[in-house]
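chain below, 390 aa
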Amino acid sequence: MATVAAAYPFIEVKIDTSALAPVAQRSPHVVAVVGKTPSGAPGGAAAPNKPFEVGTSAEAAALFAQVGNGGAVTPTTLYSSLQLAFLQDPGPSKIYGVRVDGDDYASALAALEAVDDVDFVCLANEAAVGVAGPPATNLMALKAHVESATAQGNKRIGVAMVDPATAKSLTYADDVNTTVQNLKSDISRMVVVAARGATTDVATAAMAAIAGFDPQVSMVLKRIAGVSTPVQLAFTPTEIKKLSEDGIIPLIRPSLIVGDALRMAEGRLYTSDAELLYIDIVRVLDDIDFKLRAGLIGAVGDARITEFGLRSIAIRLDGILGPLKAAAVIDDYSFSIPVLNILSVPESARTAGDTAVVQNARANRSVDILVSITYGPAIHHLKVTLAPKF
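prediction:
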């Protein structure tokens, strides 16, 4: 006779903590500055081609500059650029510095491939476009890095600058656009800024300023600290419009805004893709992309291709996209799970095509989901009609 388990201790409780597992998070405000320092001790204690997180000026000095016995710092290119990143308000949530070995930017950028939380990358005070290679050099190495990292799932944007020493001329806008033309990204991964006559690293300052804002915030008229230009070299209205239309962001000093700070005259990427033209659109899509992957990964291997299982995925989608709508990051959203729609119908009422869709999904263990979001961008241009009357 089979033994029947005793009732005692009457009630057994097993604690399942799976619902308490945290969802992976990724800050959209992390930057990396790759730059040169002198070889040996004068260039700091950091080893080349190795990312270091820097949170203070003192850390940046110890890693990427020479600090004297009295605490005096002998600046280097990389150290000076990091100082500009610290100046931005709001600023990045995290800053990495990478020391270049000689002129080998490609190897230094490759060291960032394993750092999966970087959103923006720039080269410290580098204006030379370089060549596509292989190996790619200078700013072309930056472009290659951000496009390659994006293709591998680590979405990144590179920020570069027009050579500030480019002389003022009647053809300035066309000349600089021609010079940096090879940096144009077909997949909208490059930002190019221009500040004629600036003596500091415009790219790093602009990158840190962009990273300081939430993804949905437009960059138009946002302030950049630590960069100045001679009044006589300020961009003319014609140059501002031409540069902006070419995808290059001019830094301007609007007379209508109190203060002497330079501000971004546009918010565009340097891209050939008119559908992904603005920085905020790409940043929002990158952020949602990560949130969807992080929020749905828990369903892989657990949720079943049944009506109940797919409804659990629908609940997850609402939990990911709902807060974005509530925070006004997106205006609205919807999603469709075709297999779920079919499974919601009684089996006797399904068509042969419906049955085939379900069978294929179960055979391949793959489910398609279409997510649609409505994005309400910021105003970039106001057209006001002034109609006086007596």
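The chain has a mean pLDDT of 96. The radius of gyration is 26 Å.
thats it, cya
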